[in-house]
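Lecture 7, part 2: worked example. A protein chain together with D-glutamic acid.
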Amino acid sequence: MEQLLSSHPGPIGIFDSGYGGLTILKEIREAMPGYDYIYLGDNARTPYGSRSFEVVYEFTLQAVRRLFTEGCHLIILACNTASAKALRTIQMNDLPHIDPNRRVLGVIRPTVESIGTLTHNGHVGVLATAGTVRSCSYPMEIHKLFPEITVSQEACPMWVPLVENNEAENSGTDYFIDKHLQNLTQKDPDIDTLILGCTHYPLLLPKIKQHLPPHIQVVAQGEYVADSLKDYLNRHPEIDRQCTKSGKCTFYTTEAEDKFIESASIFLHQEITVQRITLE
Ligand code: DGL
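Predicted complex, written out as structure tokens:
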């Protein structure tokens, strides 16, 4: 039997496998500072990028259920891997049983919607985790809206561990950045727009830009996700009414609190407090 969920308004839930979703949270809070948020990072089980569909779905559903019991009516999967592998099944199969009035949204669609106006020559590259690349979510979603765009993908399995281990700015990281950018631009030398299809990658932006020819524009997702969420809440006042608004943000992690605090301060440029929880 489903657990009874509170019908009172609550914070917006933001979920990621680790720290990457903090780049999305930051942009969302800048765009909508009045709302309340709960950020949940499944740091104990990150990365999701190399895990199977079944495992990503199972872990993501656990996180979604937990955020619902914390009072969230709206959850953003601020993780491309979870958006690619779990979002649709949760929306179609689980939400109708859990509570048809709650919403779970992802980060791929808002990013894809922006692409048509960003590329000039219709050649787009996607950098993402192996799981997101294998799911083909980006090419499929882009082609639904813009069938004429050529999409090339490159999986960057080392990039998330480098970010999670605070190596983003160190010189050893250059090798892995250059390698994958070279691979991608060899697949399609005409790429003019590059999507960072993983919420961790904006932390590598300075190095990515250093290793790319200047005519290639790099699209980080945060601002598009934030704009899209704002628009969504304007169009759905019934969901907006279920979001509390006192400007508060609460953090949960499934790993050690001190590690989260240290890394989160790098992502958010602010000191935070966090509570460790267990997902099951
Ligand atoms: N932040 C996740 C994403 O956007 C990747 C991290 C992971 O592999 O768990 O895909």
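The first helix runs from residue 21 to 31. DSSP finds 13 helices and ten strands in the chain. Keep this in mind for problem set question 3.
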